[in-house]
Design brief:
The chain is 44% helix and 0% strand. By secondary structure, the chain is mainly α. The protein has a domain of 74 residues. Helix 2 runs antiparallel to helix 3. The longest helix is centred in the N-terminal third of the chain and has 28 residues. The mean pLDDT is 75.
Length: 143
């Protein structure tokens, strides 16, 4: 008798890209996955840059400290987070998520300030303005 070994074909293990292609049968699905990976890459990059702005690296690494304005990077970071549906909002109890002052709290502050210091602030947005005080004898203090 000859060798009757069964020759079975074992499927090769597919790579991650092969599994993704099998999962998406259309071109739109592939582009959606690609856009998600691009957004994740930008999110990781901007998060890393923001982290490096706010931490001090040890001198042993030999990386000089960079003076960087994080405003643009922070806007990119929040923009990418917004594409994933993450946004700063209000908590359920009505307070602001960032610790800000609510409308009710502001009204209470204005009411208390009006009781303790009855003054009025004027804001003039035209120039030039000259302020003069007319002195009367009643206004002058004599000793």
């Amino acid at each position: 008798m000859g060798d009757n070994k069964l020759t079975e074909k074992t499927p090769k293990k597919k790579s991650i890209i092969g599994r993704i292609k099998d999962a998406t049968h259309d071109r739109e699905g592939e582009l959606a996955i690609l856009s998600t990976f691009v957004r994740l890459g930008i999110l990781i990059w901007s998060g890393g840059i923001l982290t490096l702005v706010y931490i001090k690296l040890p001198p042993a690494l030999g990386i000089p400290e960079q003076k960087l304005d994080p405003t643009f990077i922070a806007s990119v970071f929040t923009g990418v987070l917004a594409t994933f549906g993450v946004q700063a909002g209000k908590k359920a109890n009505g307070t602001s998520a960032d610790g800000g002052v609510t409308k009710k709290q502001m009204e209470q502050l204005i009411k208390k300030a009006a009781q303790t210091a009855p003054r009025q602030t004027l804001r003039i947005e035209q120039a030039p303005v000259t302020l003069k005080v007319d002195k009367t004898e009643e206004d002058t203090h004599k000793m």
